[in-house]
């Protein structure tokens, strides 16, 4: 994961994401990857979140997170990927561009 680049999110958007995460998966380490992390995002590009917990989220907790994100005032879709559920090669590629939220 890198910290040298800047996320293409406003402070308000970051705060909204963090509130949804803290309310549903408190203490989870989360990173942003994809176009918002690499500088290729357009105004309404989605946000790709990577949950870095070593175990998959319980289904009810994952649904609560998705519901909280859907109910937020964010003007774009948020995709949630769990590091524990993706193949190693994909996780390595994601982590190479990810920025901690």
UniProtKB/TrEMBL annotation:
Gene3D superfamilies: Beta Polymerase, domain 2. InterPro entries: NT_sf, Polymerase_NTP_transf_dom. CDD domains: NT_KNTase_like. One of its GO terms (molecular function) is nucleotidyltransferase activity. The keyword Iron-sulfur does not apply. Keywords: Transferase. Residues 16-99 form the Polymerase nucleotidyl transferase domain. This is Nucleotidyltransferase domain protein. The lineage of its organism: Bacteria, Pseudomonadati, Pseudomonadota, Betaproteobacteria, Burkholderiales.
């Amino acid at each position: 994961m890198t910290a040298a680049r800047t996320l293409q999110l406003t402070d308000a958007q970051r705060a909204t994401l963090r509130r949804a995460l803290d309310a549903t998966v408190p203490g989870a380490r989360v990173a942003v990857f994809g176009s918002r992390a690499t500088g290729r995002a357009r105004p309404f590009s989605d946000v790709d979140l990577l949950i870095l917990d070593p175990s998959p989220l319980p289904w009810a907790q994952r649904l609560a997170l998705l519901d909280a994100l859907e109910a937020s005032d964010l003007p774009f879709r948020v995709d949630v990927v769990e590091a524990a559920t993706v193949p190693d090669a994909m996780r390595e590629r994601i982590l190479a561009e990810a920025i901690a939220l």
